[in-house]
Design brief:
- This protein is an alpha/beta fold and 225 residues long.
- The chain folds into two domains: 148 residues, Response regulator (Rossmann fold); 57 residues, Winged helix-like DNA-binding domain superfamily/Winged helix DNA-binding domain (Arc Repressor Mutant, subunit A), CATH 1.10.10.
- The protein is elongated, with a radius of gyration of 24 Å.
- The strands form two sheets. The protein has a five-stranded parallel beta sheet with strand order 5-4-6-7-8, sandwiched between helices.
- Helix 6 crosses helix 8 and helix 7 packs across helix 8.
- 50% of the residues lie in helices and 14% in strands.
Length: 225
């Protein structure tokens, strides 16, 4: 029996962060009876759900907000589930996609996962297994959402730097000392120290290691000597 977020005694929703916005599950399924079954299932464990009768209807609405996940049937009229999944995989949505397949479509589901799908479930659906997968997808979506917010904030901090401060930052991340930076930029070491202090302040970094971790989170190491 389903009881709140408990399924056979296991609280599979425990990893969902209560500080995040309420997650939404998007069900894209052309068969009405399956759509209603899934909607009722998620509602029974207090999860918010929106359903769509086709991939085209979903694309027309494009209702996506993070955190959440998409439950996507493989075979549908119009745009197929796999084509829709491939299209969504190209977007930076922080929304995991779960593929729903009939028996015999497993190879298609595996291909979808290689294209970025989070997981797949086979029909007839095991409700406990499905809920476990959904909760894992929602937790992953929350992680991706937090990561995106963090990286966006870092990029905004980088935009606050002047061109000279950006030069100094690049050299700091390359491991160069103040005297090396001063020599290469043709400025005094004292001027480098001033720029460095401003960089640390704008990037909200307390140490050089903290600064390096922050920058590398959005800009992978270039491999410069």
């Amino acid at each position: 029996m389903l009881n709140g977020k408990r399924v056979t005694g296991a609280n599979i929703g425990a990893d969902i962060d209560p500080a995040m916005p309420e997650p939404v599950i998007y069900v894209v399924e052309d068969e009405e009876i399956n759509r209603e079954f899934l909607t009722d299932l998620f509602a029974s464990v207090d999860l918010k759900v929106r359903s769509f009768a086709s991939g085209d209807e979903f694309l027309e609405a494009m209702p996506i907000q993070a955190p959440g996940c998409i439950l996507l049937d493989v075979r549908m009229p119009g745009i197929s589930g796999l084509d829709l999944q491939a299209q969504l995989a190209e977007e930076d949505l922080s929304i995991p996609t779960i593929i729903v397949t009939a028996h015999g479509d497993t190879q298609m589901a595996v291909r979808a996962m290689k294209s970025g799908a989070f997981d797949f479930v086979e029909k007839p659906i095991n409700t406990q297994m499905l809920l476990e997968i959904v909760y894992k997808a929602l937790a992953e979506s929350e992680r991706l959402s937090r990561d995106k917010v963090f990286k966006d904030s870092i990029r905004k901090r980088l935009e606050l730097l002047t061109p000279r401060e950006r030069d100094v930052l690049d050299m700091i991340t390359d491991g160069k000392l103040n005297k090396q930076i001063a020599y290469e930029l043709g400025i005094t070491q004292r001027t480098v120290e001033v720029h460095r202090a401003r960089v640390m302040e704008k990037m909200q970094a307390k140490t050089a290691a903290d600064l390096l971790r922050t920058v590398l989170s959005v800009e992978p190491y270039s491999g410069k000597p």
